[in-house]
Amino acid sequence: MIAQNNVRSTNNDPVESSESYPITGGTNGAGTSRLFRQFGSLFSSPAPTTDPAGYVEFGSISDPVASSGRTLGTFAGVFCPVALSMFSALVFIRVGFIVGNAGLYVTLLQFIIAYVILLFTVSSVCAISTNGAVEGGGVYFMISRTLGPEFGGSIGTLFFLANVVGCGLAISGCAEGIIQNFGPSDGTGSGSIPDGRWWRFLYCSSLNTLMLIVVLIGAEMFAKTSMMILGVVVICLLSTYVSFLTQGPMDVSIPHENNLVNFTTARYTGLQADTLWSNLHTNYTKDYTSNGNQVNFAVVFGVLFSGVTGIMAGANMSGELKNPSKSIPAGTLSAVLFTFLCYMALSVLIAATTTSTLLQNNFLFLGPINLWPTFVTIGILTATFSTGLSNLIGASRVMEALAKDRVFGPLMSFVVKGTYKNNPIAAVIASWVLVEAILLIGSLNTIAQINSVLFMLAYLATNLACLGIEITGAPNFRPTYKYFTWHTAFIGLLGTAIMMFVINSIYALSSIILCLLLVIALHLFSPASQGAQWGSISQALMFHQVRKYLLMLDSRKDHVKFWRPQMLLLVSSPRSCCPLIHFVNDMKKGGLYVIGHVKVGEFADNDSSNDPTIEEYTQWLSLVDHMKVKAFVELTLSRNVREGIQHLIRISGMGAMKPNTTILGFYDEEQSKDFFEHEDSPYKTSEFDGNGIKLFPYRKSGESKSLGVVDYVRIIDDVLRMRKNLCLCRHFHRLDKQMIARNNHIRYIDVWPVNIFEPKNEDPFDVVSQFMMQLACIINMLPVWKKLELRVFLCESETVSENSAAFERPAEHRLDQRLKLLRISASIHKIPEWSKDIDFAKHRNILKQFTGNSDSNQLMAEENINRSKLYMQRINQIIRDRSNATAVTFMYLPTPPATPSVDYKEKCHHYLDLLTELTFDLPPTILVHGIDAVTSTTL
């Protein structure tokens, strides 16, 4: 639209019946400027806001210390949960299994590989957590604010499910420990508690309820519990180390459920060099707990890695930490180092004291060899209980963060309402219910592998987020954690991806597919629109790649074989030219499409403190979204329409990606139609009406136009002088694509490749004719238009066939051959009355006076003007007679009058009058003038 009086728009410009006039899209003067505007806000700092939890934010920086409810420090809030989660049941139950099968060398190598991957993932976590305030939700919060709401929501959902399943697994392990020591399977056959499927479910439910009570009391209670449990686990682990150093040789019983061997005891030797030597190398055998399945490197590593996946336990407590950006790196790294040293020492001591036979056939051998076997039992129960507790509180915090962000709309609003003193009571109870559902399954061996893969997927996403930000070089990514580089993120990403498939390729692939489905679903259906507030890594990556490829795109290497239309549609008011906007979107054929608009006014006289085009830019972007077209927007402020159009033609696009075709609406007196209000319009919307103000106003009936005829014709001349192809579009308010799709009456796309103003005795193969045939062919390639037949009309004057009736055939034959060479499927139609009823030679010299090809500076006689109008009316009648079933007509646009001529203003009026007569009452019509060759006949 074209606005005047500095800010307000009156839209009195000619344009497709006051509809389409000049102007482009984008704020930075480039076809890609929309991308650049979006990228600019990736790490920007918006105005201070208050989030649902009560934290005061400014951009990505908040003041968590000042907020209530944050009471945890590094040791209680991060170190203890991470250390306990990484110990889990592995430290007392599975290390012997690993050493006995893989040998000490491979075991140490596997621990090093696992901890290298974990260390690099922790580096990514530390980088994100020290680049701004981390709120509640831990990993979900970090990923969603970095990768955007779609990836963040999907990964957060999977991470929530992983925590739920992990809690169920830990509870089941704890129950197994209870049954193993106090039930019928304790070896004596007469335990103090009964066993059975429902008894086990009862024990698990009791443990789950106990965890629920602890978590409901609050995170501080959880932290205190964690510190106490960690102290107990460390004491139990120290007792194991002391036992290895002090206990002498003994025979240890083989569990009665091990039916793979026929002996009942195996040897524990104590510290001996021979025992260490025999356990150095691999000795894979069968696993007696899994129906005798063969053990291999992947199985052993899967067991090992699934036991040390608790590095996110501290990050999950981010909402309760006094200083997350300091506590998360320090607590997580120290916990990783502590558990690594414990596992390495434990592996060496096991290899030096225990025979491989005992390691492979009794996974609970640490109990019998301990100075006080009860220590091992306590260690198993406390380690598994704390792991379940950590997973339960982690799941509830992630669920709370998903609800606050409205990732699933109002579906989880009950979680936000059910928060008391910063403790998400509703989320805790909901997580508890889901854990109960997991416990009903009974056997969780298969789910345990899925659980490990889901955790790995979260780690992969974290590394991906950091790698993406580092690659894009975003200047606001300045983590205070100094040991992070893109190399660490890449190694962590590659390692987690490989290990996912090592653990279980089927479950890894399934989890990735599930994640992608969640990404697509959230992108399409999620009512949450947080991407603009959080920033999305996809925008930064696109900016990085677009800039790189734009620099590589060299206009000097353009070739006609790969030509495509790059459209600049100049629009006065989109209300009245919606069909044209849609039609040009079809005609661009994957090329650049820019919608341009000139706002008339003086920048210095503007009352607003800002450029008015900046304020209106978002409205135009909303228009593009409503129209569902793939277009950029370019606005400019200028003293007059003509000058503004010159600006847009020059600045639209970027580098070698610039519009090569300018499209204008026709200058006529037809009444404009408001497609946003019309009842039968497919573009009907009230989005641009509010508070009594209509956005994008247009020229009403009786209002004068702000653009004169001479200026309009001069704009046409400007476009051609700037070496841009030109299209003038008329009657597009009549275009109805839905009717074309439904109605079989509309059957044709017509091309009239003849210059009506200067008909010559030549075949219609000049640049302009080929350009209009190219555009018609492009339209005919699209689904809705493909059902229509392309017709090319052969128009010859009688002098062409003079003295030879047979000479008519070669012209038609040559046109047919040219269409075949250009691979254009079209039928050729001759016009008999063209040579019989019209004296072209008589009108040629008269019509030339109205075009840029005129060499005459003489005044035009009134008789010649009237004769020319009658001539145009006759041509118009011939075209109308053949257009009853035509959807769109392409016609030849002659050049406008040359500016340095006598009575230039009169010639402009006559030039436009003749075009008006020529296109009167036709179907939607495009007057085309091409500048350069756009077709190729070579490979």
TrEMBL record:
One of its GO terms (molecular function) is potassium:chloride symporter activity. It is found in: Membrane. The gene is 1279673. InterPro entries: AA-permease/SLC12A_dom, SLC12_C, SLC12A_fam. Residues 1-26 are annotated as: Disordered. Keywords: Membrane, Transmembrane, Transmembrane helix, Transport. Residues 1-21 have a biased composition (Polar residues). It is a multi-pass membrane protein. This is Solute carrier family 12 member 9. Its main location: membrane. Residues 84-568 form the Amino acid permease/ SLC12A domain. The chain crosses the membrane at residues 75-99, 111-134, 198-219, 226-244, 295-315, 327-352, 372-394, 425-444, 450-471, 483-501, 507-525. GO terms for cellular component: membrane. Gene3D superfamilies: Amino acid/polyamine transporter I. Pfam families: AA_permease, SLC12. It comes from Anopheles gambiae. Residues 579-669 form the SLC12A transporter C-terminal domain. GO terms for biological process: cell volume homeostasis; chloride ion homeostasis; chloride transmembrane transport; potassium ion homeostasis. The keyword 4Fe-4S does not apply. Belongs to the SLC12A transporter family. It comes from the Eukaryota.
